[in-house]
Design a protein that fits this description.
The chain is 28% helix and 23% strand. The chain has helices at 19-28, 34-40, 45-57, 77-84, 110-113, 140-146, 150-154, 176-184, 211-222, 237-250, 269-284; strands spanning 7-14, 61-63, 70-76, 88-92, 98-102, 116-120, 129-130, 163-168, 194-197, 227-232, 255-258, 260-263, 288-292, 310-311, 319-321, 324-328, 334-339, 341-342, 347-348. The mean pLDDT is 91.
Length: 372
C-alpha cells in the first residue's frame, strides 16, 4: 500500500440542482449567465461545506470556491484509502515511470455523497496525449486559401473580440519560437494576445514538446486578433479536470480548442463523469468546445486493443474534429482533400461509436440505415 509519502490529488465532481431543467436548457440550445447558472443549477453550498469539512477531518486539504464544479482534495494516500475504502498502490513501469493507482471502486461517505457524484485523481497515470498538427504545417497563406477564409478576413473577421482557451499538458520554454513565427508571417506579436495560466493546484505540465506552440501558431493564423489563453496542467485526470473547470469559470461565452485525448475505455468513470458535468456547465454558459478526434484512427487504445474512440471527443456535447490530408494544385492552390489516414501504420483521424454515450439526436439522420 502507498505510504504517507505518496500524495494523491483528488477532484470531487459536485452534484448540480434541477438536473431535468438543465437537460432541457441544453437541448434547447439556449444559454444562461454565470450568475443564473449558479442560482438555478449550481451545487448546494451547505452540502458542499459539509463535504469539505468531512474531507478535512479525514486528513485531506480540501478547497471549494464558487462557481467551481469541483472540490479539490489533496493529501497522503493512506488518508484517501481509509476515507474511500480503496487500496492505493505505487507502481513502476519497465521504463522507470512511477505512478499511484487503485483497482478498487471508491465508496463515498454519506456527507460527501450528498454533495458529489464522482471522484477523479485516484491515479496519476498520464493518460492524456496531445493531438497536434505535425511539423511543417500550414502557413497563413495556406490557411486562408484552403479554408476559404479570405472573404471573411476581407470583411474584417479576424478574431477581434473573441477569446480562445487551450488546455495543454506540455510547457512553453520561452516565447522565442512564437515571436519568430509571428514576425516572419506579419502577424500580431503573441505578447499582445497571449496569456499563460498556471496554478500549483493543476500540477506540473510536461517539458515542452512543441504541441502547445503548434496549436497556438495555427489558431493565430486563423484568428490573428483573438485573445489566446493557455491553461497548463499535468496530464493526469485529477489535475487536468481542475484546469478545465477553471477555464469554464473564467471565460463563459468563449471558445475551447482542445488537442488532447485518452483511450475512452481506459478513462476512469469518475474522470469521465466529472469532465462531462463541467462540459454541461460550459454548454449552458455558451462555450463552444472543439476537440481533436485523435491521430491513431480506430486504434486510440493501441493496435493490440479493440477499436475505440478518444475521450473527450466522444462526448455528444463537444464538436469532434478529425484531420484531413490536403492536396495542392500545380498552381499551389487548394485542389482537394481526404480524411487523413495511413493504412500501413493505422494512423489517421480518429472516430467511431462511443462505448458510453448514446448517439445524440442531431446525428441520427446521419447514422447507418437498415435495409430489408
Amino acid at each position: 500500500m502507498a505510504g504517507s509519502s505518496t500524495t494523491v490529488f483528488l477532484s470531487f465532481g459536485l452534484r448540480i440542482r434541477n438536473q431535468g431543467q438543465l437537460d432541457a436548457l441544453l437541448a434547447s440550445g439556449k444559454t444562461v449567465s454565470a450568475s443564473e447558472y449558479a442560482a438555478r443549477f449550481g451545487p448546494d453550498p451547505v452540502f458542499v461545506q459539509r463535504a469539505v469539512a468531512t474531507l478535512q477531518a479525514a486528513g485531506l486539504h480540501a478547497i471549494w470556491r464558487s462557481p467551481s464544479s469541483l472540490i479539490a482534495a489533496d493529501g497522503p494516500a493512506p488518508a484517501a484509502s481509509r476515507l474511500l475504502g480503496v487500496d492505493i498502490e505505487n507502481y513502476r513501469m519497465a521504463d522507470g515511470v512511477t505512478f499511484y493507482a487503485t483497482l478498487d471502486q471508491p465508496h463515498l461517505p454519506a456527507a460527501i455523497a450528498a454533495a458529489t457524484a464522482a471522484v477523479s485523481g485516484l491515479d496519476d497515470y498520464h493518460r492524456d496525449r496531445g493531438y497536434a498538427v505535425r511539423p511543417g504545417g500550414l502557413i497563413p497563406v495556406d490557411v486562408l486559401s484552403y479554408y476559404n477564409l479570405k472573404a471573411l478576413r476581407d470583411a474584417g473577421l479576424d478574431g477581434t473580440g473573441q477569446t480562445i482557451m487551450l488546455p495543454e499538458i506540455d510547457d512553453l520554454p520561452n516565447m522565442t519560437d512564437l515571436d519568430k513565427f509571428a514576425s516572419k508571417f506579419g502577424l500580431p506579436a503573441f505578447e499582445s494576445v497571449l496569456t499563460l495560466r498556471r496554478d500549483p493546484n493543476w500540477g506540473t505540465p510536461e517539458k515542452a514538446q512543441g504541441e502547445t506552440a503548434l496549436d497556438l501558431e495555427i489558431i493565430h493564423e486563423v484568428a490573428p486578433n483573438a485573445k489566446l489563453v493557455v491553461y497548463l496542467s499535468s496530464p493526469d485526470f485529477g489535475h487536468s479536470d481542475r484546469a478545465f473547470d477553471q477555464m469554464v469559470s473564467d471565460h463563459p461565452g468563449s471558445i475551447i480548442s482542445e488537442s488532447l485525448g485518452s483511450c475512452e475505455p481506459d478513462t476512469p468513470s469518475g474522470a469521465r463523469d466529472n469532465y462531462a458535468a463541467i462540459q454541461d456547465r460550459a454548454v449552458a454558459l455558451g462555450v463552444s468546445h472543439f476537440v481533436a478526434s485523435g491521430d491513431n484512427g480506430a486504434y486510440t487504445c493501441g493496435l493490440d486493443q479493440d477499436p475505440a474512440g478518444s475521450f473527450p471527443s466522444t462526448l455528444p456535447s463537444v464538436t469532434s474534429v478529425g484531420g484531413t490530408t490536403v492536396f495542392e494544385s500545380k498552381q499551389g492552390a487548394y485542389f482537394k482533400e481526404y480524411a487523413w489516414g495511413s493504412p500501413l501504420d493505422q494512423s489517421g483521424g480518429g472516430g467511431g461509436a462511443s462505448q458510453f454515450y448514446a448517439m445524440p439526436a442531431y446525428q441520427k439522420s446521419e447514422g447507418p440505415t437498415r435495409t430489408r
